[in-house]
Amino acid sequence: MGIRRRTTRQIYLAGGLGFTWFTCPFNNRSRAWCDSSCMASTSASVTVGTESLAYDALRVLVNWQRERRLKRVQAARTATELIAAGGGYYNGDQLGHSLALQVDGSIACWGWNGSRQAPPDGILGDFTAVDAGLWHSLALRRDGSVACWGRNRDRQAPPAGVPGNFVAIAAGGYHSLAIRHDGSVACWGRNNEGQAPPAGVPGNFVAIAAGFTQSLALRRDGSVACWGWNLNGQAPLAGVPGNFVAIAAGALHSLALRVDGSIACWGGDHAGQAPPDGIPGDFMAIAAGMYHSLALRRDGSVACWGLNNDGQAPPAGVPGNFVAIAAGAGHSLALRRDGSVACWGLNTNGEAPPAGVSRPFKATQADL
């Protein structure tokens, strides 16, 4: 399906790309090899860089009787900003960072900057989307190329960036993904578990999500393709059939938003982050963090479940008039209609100031 034009509007097809690594809070069931660091990260969505591509892709997922619902879902994903939350554990300390797209196309950064993934002065440019990984960050330029900064030991964030005609990005643990104009997925960075094959992944995809060592992609028919590490069932080789409109990848778990507003969960559930029976509701967006999950309700409030040791996922949820969400290692973000960002959870490195962050961030004014 051709793309008519690139716009500044971002389609929130993948509600959150969480991921993390597993030293610290849990027992051996949630441990695996670790190169002295553990991580978690998500963005408010994996963003499709053209309005026409995402909307057309959504339309083919359902019949005409669900068109009204689809338009509401599209509106909830559509924004002229993007927020992202990343970070993880390093030598026992949890280190998080946050990103947000400003009205002038530049990127604001706050939180831990040990790998230069969140420079306090931000990143200048004409960007349309951002995503936060473990120790690296990505941004999609208006021309379709990808800017990268932060840790690059596994070539997940080459300083020169990645040229191409991309429409979506996702930052994982030590790997990165991007959807090309033709719907195929480009991969770079660490591939020890098959999460980022250098040849990429062919297909006709409309959204992507990168976990720590797993990758997901949403097909136009609403099913989910998975590749990478599957020890906890977070990335079944056969994929996940369904009528989905959004995906999110966590450390050990994965989420997908159905067209009816309910959420399917699979993978590790040791902290209650991915109940096998899923989450009923009328949700418009999802985000997967370290061991916690978020979902944006139609009324603008946020539902939370999973690990809440640092207040990142209060069981009662978070009231508000939000239009986007992001989940990191131990913190969570939500973008308000007025362009300000609410933060909750761990704030050790300033990644989630309790007072929030008020800057000229872009925000959709769509009526949810």
TrEMBL record:
Pfam families: RCC1_2. RCC repeats lie at residues 144-182, 183-221, 261-299, 300-338. GO terms for cellular component: cytoplasm. It comes from the Eukaryota. One of its GO terms (molecular function) is guanyl-nucleotide exchange factor activity. InterPro entries: Ran_GTPase-activating, RCC1/BLIP-II, Reg_chr_condens. Coiled coil: none annotated. SUPFAM superfamilies: RCC1/BLIP-II (SSF50985). This is Uncharacterized protein. The lineage of its organism: Eukaryota, Viridiplantae, Chlorophyta, Pseudoscourfieldiophyceae, Pseudoscourfieldiales.
